[in-house]
Every structure is written in C-alpha cells, then in structure tokens.
TrEMBL record:
Record's catalysed reaction(s): RX + glutathione = an S-substituted glutathione + a halide anion + H(+)
Protein name: glutathione transferase
InterPro entries: Glutathione-S-Trfase_C-like, Glutathione-S-Trfase_C_sf, Glutathione_S-Trfase, Glutathione_S-Trfase_N, GST_C, GST_C_Tau, Omega/Tau-like, Thioredoxin-like_sf
GO biological process: glutathione metabolic process
Ranges for domain GST N-terminal: 3-82
Keyword Repeat: no
Family, as annotated: Belongs to the GST superfamily.
Amino acid sequence: MADEVTLLDFWASPFGIRVRVALAEKGVKYEYSEQDLRNKSALLLQMNPVYKKIPTLIHNGRSVCESLIIVQYVDGAWKDKAPLLPSDPYQRAQSLFWGDFIDKKVFEYSKKIWTTKGEDMEAAKKDFIECLKLLEGELGDKPYFGGENLGYVDVAFVPFYCWFYAFETCGNFSIEAECPKIIAWAKRCMLKESVSKSLQDPKKVYEFVLELRKRFGVD
C-alpha cells in the first residue's frame, strides 16, 4: 500500500519549512495543505488537538506534531535515503542538542528583533548574533552541520535563512558582517534543490513580518 502523506502547514513558517526540506531530502511525495492560522481547520484541530499548531504531518491517517519531532519521524520512517541523524548515540545526542538550541534560543531572539523596539531590540540583536557565533563554532570547517551531507541540524536551522532579510531590515544590521560563515553555509545549503525549493522569497517574508508588526502594535 502506498504511503498517504499530508502536511498541514503555513507558507512562511520556518518550522513547517523544516518538514518540507526533510521530506524533499527523502524524496517523499505528499499533499501540502495550507492552513489559515487565524481560522484553524477542523482537520488541524482533529489531528493536533493538544497544541493546535502547524506543522502537523499526517502519515497513513496518523498524526505527528512539533517540527523537530516530525523531522526525526521522517528520518526514521523513510530511512533508506538521505539519513539526517547520525547512528552514533553521542553524535545523535549532539545533533538533538543543537536542534533544541535553535528552537529555544535562535527563534526566541530572532522573534524579539522584529517584535520589539529600542533597547529591547538592540539586546535581542546582540543575543541573536551570539547564538549564531556559537553555531559557527559548532559548524567549524565542515561544509554542513551534518558533515559532508545535509543533516538534522542543517534542516532545523536553514529555514530561518529566508527570514534573515526581515531580521536585518527590521534591526538595521548585517548578519554576514557579523557571521560570514553562517551565510556561506546557508548559500551552500541553497544549492540543494530540497532547500531552495522549500525556502520562501525573503522579500515576501519581510512583507509578512511588516503585517505582523502592525497586527502586534509594534509599528
């Protein structure tokens, strides 16, 4: 029986983009279902009754929620192609650690850049750059966080690249000037079709961020 795979998602979500990259790396065919986050569908509420969030993956009628957990699931469910997590327990633990770091720190500080002003924004920029420098240290001289190939940490982090323009424009700073290795890594990732076809147009993301800033009363 052929796999039935549906992704409930929202176009600009870096968390949803993670899942799209992972599925593309694995060559999994799936139905994409764009969700209205202000008027959540009955299917989303049924399939993710706890958090009621995207992305939610539905595989043969069963749902998997939370982006990094979905990426781990995709890696295990379609394990014959493009492994994302290392088999070595220590290396695997390190990958999971950095994925968690991206969720807890990179996302938190980057969101503050476009949802705050003045001193709060300046502090967020500083914290965000410090996070990127830590990630540069973890990347080292490797082409990807996964080594010679795209791995779990790459999939967790690269979706934020299409938001960088919005962060830089809202915060009036240059990520490349501060963290050139991160930008070089992101451009390397973009040479992969699984990444370039999944990430969104940075200008379009920026326009979306401007809408959100108005909605949140920042501007």
